[in-house]
Each structure stands twice: as C-alpha cells, then as structure tokens.
Amino acid sequence: MRHVLGISGGKDSAALAIYMQTKYPNLDIDYYTCDTGKELDETYQLIELLETVLGKKITVLRAMEKSPEPAFDHFLKMYGGFLPSSMSRWCTKKLKLEPFEKYVGSDPVVSYVGIRGDEDREGYISRKANIQSIFPFRKNIWSEDVILKALANANRAALLDYYSSLPLEHRSQRFEDLLIQGIEPSFTLSQKLNLLLDLNVRSLNEIVFAWLKTTDYPLAHETYFPLVDNDEVLVRDDIFRILNESGVGIPAYYNKIEYEVNGNKGQYARSRSGCYFCFFQQKIEWVWLYEQHPLRFFQAVEYEKDGYTWNQDERLEDLIAPERMTQIKEEFLKKSANHNPKSPFLMDILADAEGEGCAACFL
C-alpha cells in the first residue's frame, strides 16, 4: 500500500501535507508535485519551504521529460496551437493526470486530497481501480464513488450487521433507523449521508471501512486505517493557521497588493495556484499578472499569436489597454464592495466570484 499526497503549490495542499505529517506521523506518505514548467516562481519557493518543514523530498513529476522543449509547448503543437480552455482542459490531462497515474503505476494507492470542509466540490477521482482518494479536511473523508456504492439500498442489511458489531455505547437507534431507510426520490443519498454524518462521523467511517473490505478498493487490503477515527473538519481559517504556525506561511501570490483607480483604492492578488496563464483566471488576475509579473504576462500573450485566446471574449493585448484596465479595476472594486465575504481574505472574494477552477489542478 502506498500513500501519496500531491502538492499543487496552493495553500490547501500545502496545509494538508503539514497536517498529515503532524497528525499521522506513522503513515509513510510520498509527497509529489506535477511541474508543468509554467508555474510562477512562488510555487517553486513553496515547494522548497515545504521540503524543509516536512524533512522529506517532494518528488517532481514532469510530462515529456525527454522532449527538447517544455511539455506544454510540445502538446500545444500536437493540438495544432489550440489553447486549453474550460471546455477542453487538455493541459490538466497531459501535464498533471497522466504523469500522476504513470508515477502510481499499478500499485494500490491511497491519495490524500486537500478539499476543505467549507468547500462544496468533489475533486479528482481517478478512474483507475488501484487509486483511492481520501479527503482528511472534510467531515466525509470518503470519495463520492465510495459513498454511492456503500450506501446503496442493496447494502442496507450488510451495513446494519457492521453497525451491530460496534460497541453498544457507540450506537444509537436513530443511526440504525437511518441505515435501514431506503434511498428514494423523497429521501436522497445526500440527505442520508449528511444525517448519518451529523449523528456520528466515526460510526459511519467504521461501517464504510468494513464494507470496503468486500471490494477491490486499495483500503480493502488494510486491517486498520487511522483516518477512520478522524472527525475533524478543517475550514479556511484552519488552513491559514497551519501554514503560519509551521513557518511555511501563505504562498506569496496570495498576498494582497494595493492599487488605485480614479482616486479609489482596491486590492488584488491571485486566487489559486497553477500555471501563470491559467484560463480560469479572472480579468483582474490577468491585470495583476501584467503589473506584477510582466514577463510572464507577455509570455502568455505569445501563445495567442496562432489565433486562439486564453479568454474566449478578449485578447490579452486588448485587456491591458489603459482604459480597459481601468474598467476592470473599477468593476472589481464594485464587486468587492457589494460582496458580503465570509472571510476577510481577498483570495476568497476572487474564488467566490468565479469558482475554484479545475479540481484536478489541485493535484
């Protein structure tokens, strides 16, 4: 059994690496990062800091290592100059997923993913049967596919048997009644899962883990899995606390930078890790890139020479026209002013505005 954890360069995966080493030091976890060759320098700085804190090397995975040109450029030619987009994320497949699955091979693997307890998304789930994803920050540590199968109506009797074997003090009639209740249009899988989790996270983990032993999932081969006892839920504030207390700190591109437009002051930053030309960036983030990393910005511009653009509605050269940048900054100021943030961090406003981007990019 191998345990692996991918470092994306973002705050959540970095915090997860520190959390897992601190809470589960007996798990021999392999840390890796998928280097696209198109990252900001701050990403590489974070990797170095993490290696120091973890006291362990982070394996660097690269696609097309024998190619004389960067992997992204190699695949861009293969795709006829067609830039990746939200509708065609070939960059994620070629630069992240395929190197990761090659690295794993056919070994049974548990892959730890840093999706927080205050996020409503699933994240990457491999189609390879030998890779099982676990989400330590969430109330529900199991992946969607595991829950879908484990809580299926056909398994109700088996789950009840597993539950009956737990110590009496860990059981309740309400939990048992929910296990027996069938999933139907008026009582969905999501409702059943959330009610069970609200009653007793550890009991649910115990019976799901027992059910896994009847399957071909990697954890079927384990007699004990320490995260079964984990009922912690970590949210955004916990992530910042872990990073600051460890000495790693927040990745530098999250730092708020002040700008002024027409006498009004605002702040901008990057909202996610990933390639400097990530097509999930908002317009304000492209402006940030232009003003804070102009070399990287114009490298991104060069990729638009074949006629394709990073934004479906606007070329980067048009985006940085003075009047256009003023408009973008003003619009972001208004959006920030009208936003009622749950968190004081600017990156949360940015992320809430257009979503978290490609889940697989958080490998």
Task: List the main descriptive attributes of the protein structure presented here.
single chain; 363 residues; alpha/beta; 3 domains; five-stranded parallel beta sheet; two-stranded antiparallel ribbon; 15 helices
Descriptive report:
By secondary structure, this protein is of the alpha/beta class. Helices cover 43% and strands 9% of the residues. The protein contains 15 helices and seven strands. The strands form two sheets. A five-stranded parallel sheet has the order 3-2-1-4-5. Strands 6-7 form a two-stranded antiparallel ribbon. β6 and β7 (264-268) form a beta hairpin. The radius of gyration is 22 Å and the shape is globular.
Brief write-up:
With 363 residues, the protein is α/β, with parallel strands linked by helices. The protein has helices at residues 11-23, 41-54, 71-78, 90-104, 144-150, 156-164, 173-180, 189-199, 201-212, 236-246, 283-292, 294-302, 316-319, 322-338, 346-354, and strands at residues 2-6, 29-34, 59-61, 109-112, 131-134, 257-261, 264-268.
What's the helix-strand series?
Answer: EHEHEHHEEHHHHHHEEHHHHH
Structural class: alpha/beta
Q: Indicate the radius of gyration in whole angstroms.
A: 22 Å
User: Which topology of the largest domain does CATH recognise?
Assistant: Rossmann fold
Helical content (DSSP H or I, runs of 4+): 40-55%
Question: What spatial form do the alpha-carbon principal axes imply?
Answer: globular
Question: Quick one: CATH class of the largest domain?
Answer: Alpha Beta
- End-to-end separation in angstroms reads 19 Å
Q: What's the domain count?
A: 3
Strand percentage: 5-15%
- How are the strands of the largest sheet arranged? 3-2-1-4-5
Number of strands: 7
| Distinct helical segment count | 15
Mean pLDDT: 91
CATH homologous superfamily classification of the largest domain: HUPs
The stretches of 5 or more residues where confidence is low (pLDDT under 50) are: 343-363
What is the architecture of the largest domain at the second tier of CATH?
3-Layer(aba) Sandwich
Largest sheet: 5 strands, parallel
